[in-house]
């Protein structure tokens, strides 16, 4: 009960505390004389008395005499302890003399402020509750106080109601209905927030906030106990932890523990996800004169709306800060919000912070169950969910799946709604979407310059929203911001796309320049060598008398040099056609093993210094491919193996069936390729910077191999280690695939 009085006296306590510091300053001043002391005591609105170092009362004002129920003659000359001999603490227990304000100020030499004591009024033969402060006066050079000024304010009018409550705890069924009605009037008009319990946890009076939380009327509450309520409801602390009955604030209070501003959430046990009622509870036990707990009084304040508003404000503030931070930060992505619309309705792999923050605004402020920002593909009129946010993850997934690939017509449910929508008019919350069961959903257009960009969807489920003008303005504002973001993302995507294309063009240009440089070098060398040989052999034929055998020999040399030039030109033209997709494949059925045998037979006639080993699968399936182009692949790989293999080295060709592909490998015993060069061997005009000095080539053969295999839908790669030879692999799909 006393703790409740402390809560009730707030404004008076503030007034008292405002006076005490100024009085302290005046009392401690060296010029503060007895005349000043008497003037101060006599003119105080509060009760005031002044005592000496022995505790004898020297001065007292009329307010103090009234509160203590004594005359001036009775009081003067007594000690400050005498009239307070029956003093009680706030909890109803006796307060000894040494613990009273004047005695403490005298002992400690410093002020004692705002102590609540119950003082027995001799005239009224009842207790008055006084809020007391005691201020010592210490003269210059003295060690102890010479005067103690005690001030007190009367809180009995506020305590009267609590005394009444104390008697209410002791009411019996035989008491008159008039008395019960009298207490009901007091409770209903003054203390709608007060609950009263007896020591066994029976409810004598249930506050209005708890009636709402427990869904009980005042009459029904009188038939309940805390034990019976614990079977129907659960209490949670501010962190969401469920409290056992022994941890409920009421039970703690009835064990003698003072409860101060404990916030609990109350929800029924039989509802899976009810909205809890948030209650702030303060209370303390009531003791009788012997100090035995005879009940408890608790003040309960419903803070559900306040907590909800706080959470909404926090979410909205967080969303605004996140969105503002993201908007002033240079975007790192390449238009993730818009890029997906080119592929009809592809799901977004990630959300940008700006769009997420924008969707959190209505989610936090409008108390809705789901918010979605949908993008519209203008050609197909299909929707793609850019952002779907909901406090419930299962509801968020449900809406995302439902909106994925939905048409604007299916969402809005009719041509009239679409017409109004294109005019920028939001649909009413009761509009049925998806031809669905009636529920409350609000749909607003995301448009810019009379052009529909998307849809803002706000779902309330079965709960009808009560939207104010400010709410409508918020929804339209979010839709306009979404339109700006869509436009920004579109511009960002187009800019990034242009930058990427420019970078690709620069890379291609650099590669082209490098290839041209290599081409000029190779062509100059190859053409110069061949033309020099042709010119030299021609001059020999022209100037010298040669026999037929010598003429044939020089003619053969001229022919080989001419063939080398023709081969160079053909390779360059083939590679250009391959890379420009101008070459055509002449597909037909073919036996790859037979093709391998033919290619090896050709190469055997070209070299007598190498041996060829064939390890061919016995039953390869027939392939669908270009025989001439695949022969070029084999000839180029075998030619490459011959060039880099030492005299007498073996070249091995293997064919085997792997799953639905034919795997061919050509291995040599040459110098091998270092790891850093492996990824470059198939590049155009690439020649290894090592190997036999006599190796001829233009760096085109392996590039042609790669392009032909890729045209057939196959794969090509190389395995090698320097000094251990190389193995070139390629795969081709069988006809069944």
Automatic annotation (TrEMBL):
Protein name: histidine kinase
Keyword Transport carried by entry: no
Pfam (any one): HisKA
GO BP term (any one): regulation of DNA-templated transcription
InterPro entries the record matches: HATPase_C_sf (IPR036890), HATPase_dom (IPR003594), His_kinase_dom (IPR005467), HisK_dim/P_dom (IPR003661), HisK_dim/P_sf (IPR036097), PAS (IPR000014), PAS-like_dom_sf (IPR035965), PAS_fold (IPR013767)
SMART domains: HATPase_c, HisKA, PAS
EC number, as in UniProt: 2.7.13.3
Domain PAS: 33-81
Source species: Ktedonobacter racemifer DSM 44963
């Amino acid at each position: 009960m006393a703790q409740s009085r402390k809560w009730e006296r707030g404004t008076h306590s503030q007034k008292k505390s405002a006076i005490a510091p100024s009085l302290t300053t005046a009392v401690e001043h060296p010029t503060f004389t007895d005349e000043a002391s008497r003037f101060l005591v006599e003119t105080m609105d509060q009760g005031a008395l002044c005592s000496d170092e022995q505790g004898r009362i020297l001065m007292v004002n009329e307010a103090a005499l009234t509160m203590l129920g004594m005359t001036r003659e009775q009081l003067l000359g007594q000690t400050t302890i005498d009239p307070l001999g029956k003093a009680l603490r706030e909890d109803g227990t006796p307060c000894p003399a040494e613990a009273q304000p004047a005695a403490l100020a005298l002992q400690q030499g410093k002020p004692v402020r705002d102590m609540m004591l119950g003082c027995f009024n001799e005239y009224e033969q009842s207790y008055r509750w006084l809020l007391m402060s005691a201020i010592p006066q210490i003269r210059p050079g003295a060690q102890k106080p010479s005067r103690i000024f005690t001030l007190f304010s009367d809180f009995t009018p506020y305590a009267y109601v609590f005394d009444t409550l104390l008697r209410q705890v002791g009411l019996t069924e035989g008491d008159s209905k008039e008395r019960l009605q009298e207490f009901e009037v007091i409770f209903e008009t003054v203390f709608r927030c007060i609950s009263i319990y007896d020591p066994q946890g029976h409810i004598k009076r249930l506050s209005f906030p708890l009636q709402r939380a427990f869904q009980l009327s005042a009459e029904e509450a009188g038939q309940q106990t805390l034990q019976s309520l614990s079977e129907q409801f659960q209490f949670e602390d501010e962190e969401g932890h469920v409290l056992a009955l022994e941890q409920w604030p009421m039970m703690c209070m009835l064990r003698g523990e003072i409860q101060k501003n404990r916030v609990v959430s109350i929800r029924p046990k039989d509802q899976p996800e009810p909205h809890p009622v948030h209650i702030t509870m303060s209370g303390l036990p009531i003791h009788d004169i012997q100090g035995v707990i005879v009940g408890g009084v608790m003040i309960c304040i419903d803070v559900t709306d306040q907590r909800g508003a706080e959470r909404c404000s926090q979410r909205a503030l967080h969303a605004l800060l996140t969105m503002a931070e993201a908007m002033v930060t240079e975007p790192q992505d390449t238009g993730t919000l818009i890029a997906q619309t080119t592929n009809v309705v592809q799901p977004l792999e990630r959300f940008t912070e700006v769009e997420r923050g924008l969707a959190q605004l209505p989610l936090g402020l409008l108390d809705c169950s789901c918010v979605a920002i949908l993008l519209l593909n203008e050609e197909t009129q299909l929707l793609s969910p850019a952002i779907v946010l909901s406090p419930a993850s299962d509801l968020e997934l449900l809406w995302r799946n439902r909106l994925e690939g939905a048409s604007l017509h299916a969402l809005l449910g009719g041509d009239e709604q679409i017409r109004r929508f294109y005019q920028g008019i939001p649909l009413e919350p009761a509009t049925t979407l998806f031809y669905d069961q009636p529920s409350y959903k609000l749909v607003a257009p995301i448009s810019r310059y009379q052009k529909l960009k998307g849809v803002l969807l706000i779902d309330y489920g079965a709960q009808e929203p009560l939207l104010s003008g400010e709410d409508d303005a918020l929804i339209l504002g979010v839709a306009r911001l979404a339109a700006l973001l869509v436009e920004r993302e579109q511009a960002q995507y187009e800019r990034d796309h242009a930058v990427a294309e420019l970078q690709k063009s620069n890379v291609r240009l650099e590669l082209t320049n490098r290839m041209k440089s290599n081409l000029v070098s190779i062509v100059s060398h190859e053409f110069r060598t061949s033309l020099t040989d042709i010119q030299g052999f021609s001059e020999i034929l022209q100037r010298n008398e040669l026999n037929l055998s010598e003429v044939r020999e020089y003619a053969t040399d001229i022919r080989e040099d001419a063939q080398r030039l023709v081969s160079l030109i053909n390779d360059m033209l083939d590679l250009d056609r391959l890379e420009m997709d101008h070459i055509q494949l002449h597909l037909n059925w073919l036996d790859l093993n037979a093709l391998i045998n033919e290619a090896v037979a050709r190469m055997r006639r070209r070299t007598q210094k190498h041996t060829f080993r064939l390890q061919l699968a016995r039953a390869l399936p027939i392939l669908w491919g270009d025989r001439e182009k695949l022969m070029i692949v084999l000839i180029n790989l075998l030619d490459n193996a011959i060039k880099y293999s030492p005299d007498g080295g073996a070249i091995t060709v293997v064919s085997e069936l792997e799953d639905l592909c034919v795997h061919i490998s050509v291995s040599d015993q040459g110098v091998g390729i270092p790891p850093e060069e492996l990824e470059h061997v198939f590049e155009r005009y690439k020649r290894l910077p090592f190997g036999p000095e006599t190796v001829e080539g233009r760096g085109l053969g392996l590039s042609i191999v790669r392009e032909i295999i890729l045209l057939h839908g196959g794969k090509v790669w190389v395995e090698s280690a320097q000094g251990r030879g190389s193995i070139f692999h390629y795969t081709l799909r069988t006809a069944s695939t």
